[in-house]
Design goal:
Elements lengths: L7 E7 L6 H9 L6 E8 L6 H6 L4 E5 L5 H11 L4 E4 L4 E3 L3 H12 L3 E4 L2 E2 L3 H11 L2 H4 L3 H4 L4 E3 L3 E6 H6 L11 H9 L5 E3 L5 E3 L5 H21 L10 H8 L5 H22 L1 H27 L7
Parallel strand pairs: 1-2, 1-4, 2-3, 6-10, 7-11
Antiparallel strand pairs: 4-9, 5-11, 6-9, 8-10
């Protein structure tokens, strides 16, 4: 590593991540980049063994996040970080061995304010595999490159994200009121300072929710989080984000049957190739997409009227 290479803090907000935190931190410990100076695990009050497991790893400091939500935890990490670059990591993900190195290289070479790669979900069982497939489908999660992949280039937002600590502090850090969608909201404020760069070489895997009920609750919160961002940044709304709310509204009108028929036809068209390859995954995909779309749409509509509240 060159003496001029920036130092890095890896920030991992957690809450009850005992099932995944060891694999996550093992992947952090295996990084090829030599300039990682610390790993901050910012815990929001886990009641499982997350804190104890994390504390066993070298360079890890476990910080308390009394506000519990990720935005608050990430702001604590920003305040205490010793690295010049902060690489934000999720407790559910595993990093490719060159993840941090690729992030730093992309920041230096592009001059971008924030860089990141694609989310590569890996689910277990037919439901988990179907959920993972939905999260990488344009029909399931939309056309954003961090979901479906694509060439490197400037985008609206990326998965997780890496950035210079000082710049993040200068723009105000993560929005403390953000219950979800905190990464995309920060990207909006970072964008004028160099843009957001998607790098196809920055790779990690992610373990999504394993059940449909969990997925639905997650996407209800995501919809509400996106609505909160739109309330704060109206110009950030894109037409594709209106698809799920419009679907929900149309299902409440006299045109519900033709709308439902068209929606089911789209699901069948998307899942037909999967039935030939793996009927179990196809069924999981068929169930996962409406479990994402409808709660997201309801959460978005509710969030436009009533902001999400922190859970106790």
């Amino acid at each position: 590593m060159s003496s001029a290479a920036p130092t890095v803090t890896v920030a991992v907000p957690t809450l009850n991540e005992a099932q995944h935190i060891e694999a996550c931190l093992e992947s952090v410990g295996a990084q090829s980049y030599g300039g990682i100076v610390e790993v901050l695990v910012v815990d929001g009050g886990s009641t499982d063994a997350t804190r104890e497991l994390a504390a066993r790893f070298p360079m890890v400091r476990v910080l308390d996040n009394p506000d519990r939500i990720q935005s608050a935890g990430l702001n604590l990490a920003l305040a205490q970080a010793r690295g010049q670059v902060v690489v934000r990591v999720d407790g559910h993900c595993r990093l490719a061995v060159d993840y941090v190195e690729r992030c730093v290289t992309a920041l230096v070479e592009t001059g971008a304010a924030m860089v990141g790669g694609a989310m590569q979900p890996v689910g277990g069982g037919w439901v988990g595999a179907g959920i993972a497939k939905a999260l990488t489908s344009k029909l399931g999660a939309g056309p954003a490159r961090f979901h479906v992949g694509g060439p490197s280039g400037f985008v609206d937002t990326v998965y997780l994200g890496a950035f210079r600590r000082q710049l993040a502090l200068e723009v105000g850090g993560y929005a403390p009121e953000a219950i979800t969608n905190e990464d995309a909201e920060l990207a909006i404020r970072m964008r004028p300072h160099g843009g957001i760069w998607f790098d196809a070489r920055i790779k990690s895997s992610y373990t999504p929710r394993s059940g449909l009920a969990q997925l639905g609750r997650q996407f209800f919160r995501y919809g509400g989080g996106r609505a909160a961002t739109v309330r704060q940044h109206p110009r950030s709304l894109s037409p594709r984000q209106l698809a799920a709310p419009l679907l929900v509204l149309m299902l409440l009108t006299p045109w519900r049957l033709p709308v439902l028929g068209a929606y089911v036809a789209a699901l069948v068209a998307r899942t037909t190739p999967e039935w030939r390859r793996d009927p179990g995954v196809a069924l999981g995909l068929m169930l996962a997409m409406p479990t994402m779309h409808l709660p997201w749409g309801v959460g978005f509509l509710r969030g436009l009227i009533t902001p999400l509240r922190r859970s106790a």
